[in-house]
Amino acid sequence: MDKVIIFERGDLVFAFNFHPCNSYEGYQIGTHSDEPMRCVLDTDEGRFGGHMRLDYGHGHPFPPLHGLDKRPHSVKLYMPSRTAQVLCRQSRLEGGVHVYVEDSFLGQYDLESADGLKLSLVIQKDGAEEMLDFDFEDGAVHLKENFDATFDIVTADNCILPCKASKDT
């Protein structure tokens, strides 16, 4: 018994492997999507206390394959034991990440504008942390890539400002 649960909701595919020991290489999952899928949540990431067994990360899409389980298409993925993954159609993730700084946020910290602020991007890979900095232009940062990362807003004197994020709809 493989102890795997797969289900679709909208554009998302949820894949859970509850087996305490068995990992599955090339596990094929039927989907309705005829385009590449990307992993948007991987519980095996280090930030969730996982073992980081998925070397493909979130940068590589899973290409669509032939149908399976009464669905017209499918994808294959590696499912480590005791993990979950959420897949999303690649087209839903296009356009990058947009970060806007509202006047009310600036006012909280007695800042007149976003000038001098930078966006600090923390990427975790193979247990190591890498910091990338992006400058604000016109009060916004536009990242053209899809990152698996944590963001902080940092002042010119390297003070990290607590912030929250919301998704554009």
Automatic annotation (TrEMBL):
Entry's Gene Ontology BP terms: carbohydrate metabolic process
GO terms for MF: 1,4-alpha-glucan branching enzyme activity; cation binding
UniProt domain Alpha-amylase/branching enzyme C-terminal all beta: residue ranges: 2-87
GO cellular component: cytoplasm
Pfam families: Alpha-amylase_C (PF02806)
Name recorded for this polypeptide: SBEII protein
Species this protein is from: Symbiodinium necroappetens
Lineage of origin: Eukaryota, Sar, Alveolata, Dinophyceae, Suessiales
Gene: SBEII
